[in-house]
Amino acid sequence: MTRICTRWWLPLVMLCVIAPTMAQAQLAQKPTLQATPQAGVVSQGELRGTVQDDRGASLPGAVVSALGSITAFAVSDGEGRFVFRSLPYGPYLLRAHLQGYLPARARIVQVSNARTSWTLALARSDGSTSPSVLAAGIGGSGEEPVAAEPAGEEHDHDEVAWRLRHLKRSVLKDERGRGTGEPLLDDPLTNLARAVGSPVRLASSMFADLPINAQINLLTTTSFDRPQDLFSINAGTPQGVAYVSLVAPTADGEWTVRGTATQGDVSSWIVAGSYARRLSAQHRYEAGVSYSMQRYLGGNAEALNAVRDGARNVGSMYASDDWSLGSRVHIGYGGKYASYDYLTTDRGLISPHASVTVRPLLSDSLRLHAAVSHREIAPGAEEFIPPTTGLWLPPERTFSPVGHSGFIPERLDHLEVGAERELGRDIILGMRLFRQSVEDQIVTLFGAAAGVNTTVGHYVVGSAGNIEAYGWGASISRDVGDRFRTTIDYMQSDAQRTAESPSERGLLRVAPAVLRNSETIRTVTASMQSIVPVTLTRVMVLYRVSNAFADSLTEPGAGTRFDVQVNQQLPFLNFGGAQWEMLIAVRNAFREDLFDGSVYDELLVVRPPKRMLGGVTVRF
């Protein structure tokens, strides 16, 4: 203990540098990555504003959406006001929709500690206009309607029908159809326009008339070790993934129902529902449940032997409560219960957490926080438990235990204190000290590292034993220009193994690098988020480097993890109130959230394959 404390002089000095007051006036708040991610303490801000018509009158009942690191919805009240609370810092695309009004031009806003108010203006639609189409065939934002069709012609007024009617006619077209002002019954273009346009218009009008927001993802995913494997049998079999989300916002909360499914050798699905309510400006609570199933129909003997009764089932429920005591103190607490039917013992796992954040001086940006949590998680939980952020994917990989030890859950106790404050207008510095006690640290082995002949879609799990870790971390976040937000996080920890693994013999045979007595871990994580205003392209890049990755089977060494995601809006496909996006993502990080959990969770994932994901997203 004395040896560890003597190594903490540097972080203690940095905390002393952060703490003193640097300015008498309050500094303008800027976006920052969560400075204390391991304990679930997230830097969150508030976004509020007013929806008005083109004459300045308030518009109640308008649905407002904020699209960024997460997607949130709100409904304007009787005075046209809306508010988003507990939004992670960063850029968001802000829109408003109301039946009978043209949609407002999307705005890019930054969410931070500062409570900035925004005004969204909607122009009334006279029912005779359609979304504008630019000369290049790109749909406009709805503020500049095109000229109406000539009198005497009655057509469907959606974009698909418009495009089909204005295609070049064939020279073989029957002359009897020219100049009559009536579409031919045998005209395939007209018939197709009516067949496609009417259902789309009907479906979009259903969502427009109801206070419901919907999102549909149609994606394809695969895994590979090397880029050339994409053109060989070594790559994972591509799988189609369908995702549907329905959000019903109310004046004081919102209901959410989500589901995702895939079919193939691994047939699986996840369904979840939640309800979040704001009782007041100082109090908010949320509760939800989820259920997931995986059934394997392939020929991998390892996977078949590990799946009991042909399927795996996982259910979970959670609840959280957040209080703001004035403008200086914020308290949050909650818990999660999950049941895994493939565990031999202790199938029910409980994970409580609590945190407090204090702002000593309103005239200063310094914030102090403390958090304590206990997390229990089963091997393979990443396949079943819905992520708090990022993409929803159903269970698409199979796994089996090392040797005959079975599936052993990991239990983590985490204690953390820290601080963050602004340095100038564009920089935020964060600092934290933490202690972790891990029982049965999970190890994940892919491919040849597992000692079995499997594809990249199967992995083997085991336990590395009990571990004690003490460490500190520092993060710096800065806005580069108006559209880029960058963050660098450094973490250093001294870890020591205090008990052997139940699967010690099997791991020594296939991957001895995951069994370590004591070491110093140094990890650097860099991230960048941006929204390009002209093309409305959202880019997220995360890159992690550490000296303790177990990618080598014999001894730990330097390694990297990355996660790249690009969302490109497709305005020329927007019709009937729908908004289309194209998604492309590539990552070799195994965990959905690299900052959540034990310091070893990602380090002891041996040779993870790259995962590629692509497809389209449609929002109504």
Task: Name the descriptors.
single chain; 620 residues; mainly beta; 2 domains; 6 helices; 9% helix; 48% strand; globular
Structural commentary:
- With 620 residues, this protein is mainly β.
- It has 2 domains: 159-207, no CATH class; 212-619, Porin (Beta Barrel), CATH 2.40.160.
- It has 6 helices and 30 strands.
- It has an 18-stranded antiparallel β-barrel.
- Strand 11 and strand 12 form a beta hairpin.
- Helix 3 (159-165) packs antiparallel against helix 4 (188-209).
- The radius of gyration is 27 Å and the shape is globular.
- Residues 1-10, 12-42 and 128-209 have low confidence and may be disordered.
Reconstruct the topology from this structure.
Elements: H1 2-6, H2 9-18, E1 44-53, E2 63-67, E3 71-75, E4 81-88, E5 90-97, E6 101-102, E7 107-111, E8 117-124, H3 159-165, H4 188-209, E9 213-224, E10 239-249, E11 253-262, E12 266-280, E13 283-296, H5 301-306, E14 311-325, E15 329-340, E16 348-358, E17 367-377, E18 398-401, E19 410-423, E20 427-439, E21 442-446, E22 458-463, E23 466-480, E24 484-499, H6 504-510, E25 518-532, E26 537-549, E27 557-569, E28 579-587, E29 605-606, E30 610-619
Parallel strand pairs: 1-8, 18-22, 21-29
Antiparallel strand pairs: 1-4, 2-3, 2-5, 5-7, 6-8, 9-10, 9-30, 10-11, 11-12, 12-13, 13-14, 14-15, 15-16, 16-17, 17-19, 19-20, 20-23, 21-22, 23-24, 24-25, 25-26, 26-27, 27-28, 28-30
